[in-house]
Design a protein that fits this description.
Helices cover 44% and strands 14% of the residues. By secondary structure, the chain is α+β, with helices and mostly antiparallel strands. Helix 6 packs parallel to helix 8. The two termini are 44 Å apart. The relative contact order is 0.08.
Length: 248
């Protein structure tokens, strides 16, 4: 857990640098006038050592950030990873924190566009790899043990991605996992034909062992994220209260 903490401390210089550039653009109306005049506007989004710099400007403005960011990081003894860093247009899309973020045409909106967030292919392949590893024949003693392990992986993954455009991905993951567990059952009960296996272990084609049943990603409700900014409620009071000291 030390690495994310150190990254947050070291890369705070980037936050300060781009915050100062943003504030130098002035008020909302002044920023709009400067953008119309060709002055680029930039904002940074950062999580530990992963960050994205959004640029309202030309590709040259974005590519100029290579040298600028390098100069900011140099005093901290840090440098950009050329393999992991790229310049792209939002219409091309990019991966960030497991998400694929891309601006696309809105269905039935006459060419209007919106930014969508999908689970990235890398994130999907990662969770599929975990399910594949868990469903090897000798990994678990009983179906219940297997379901408990697989459910933990599926539930955690879906809880992270259910705020995006994830319904089709969840359906694909559900299908993949079901057939992996079905294959595990076939190998564990090689002497049973398909009809007997389904009757004994897959009632109504549902995978369960007693009270433990397979977590179904395709049944997870998608709750699309809506930007709320400063309207997000907080449990903390904005005023500091001081409790009176007890009197002896």
């Amino acid at each position: 857990m030390l690495s994310p903490l150190l990254a947050n401390i070291a890369l705070s210089v980037l936050d300060e640098h781009f915050t100062a550039k943003w504030e130098a653009l002035g008020s909302t109306s002044m920023r709009a006038r400067r953008r119309r005049a060709g002055v680029p506007a930039m904002r940074i989004i950062r999580y530990a050592d992963d960050f994205v710099v959004m640029v309202n400007g030309s590709r040259n403005d974005a590519e100029a950030l290579w040298d600028e960011v390098t100069a900011v990081l140099a005093p901290m003894g840090l440098r950009l990873s050329e393999e992991k860093t790229r310049v792209c247009h939002i219409d091309e899309g990019f991966d960030f924190l497991g998400w694929h973020i891309q601006r696309r045409n809105r269905r039935g909106q006459n060419g209007k566009k919106a930014v969508y967030t999908y689970p990235s292919k890398k994130a999907l392949l990662s969770v599929m790899g975990k399910v594949r590893s868990l469903t090897t024949r000798a990994k678990h003693r009983t179906l219940g043990d297997l379901l408990i392990s697989v459910n933990r992986v599926l539930r955690g993954w879906c809880n992270y991605f259910y705020h995006g455009v994830s319904a089709k991905t969840f359906g694909y993951l559900d299908h993949f996992t079901w057939w992996r567990i079905y294959g595990w059952l076939r190998k564990r009960h090689a002497g049973l034909n398909k009809g007997t296996l389904v009757r004994r272990h897959l009632p109504n084609w549902e995978i369960r062992d007693g009270r433990v049943e397979m977590f179904r990603p395709q049944k997870v409700a998608i709750v699309r994220y809506r930007y709320r900014g400063t309207r997000i409620p907080t449990p903390w009071s904005s005023e500091t209260t001081v409790s009176p000291a007890p009197v002896a």
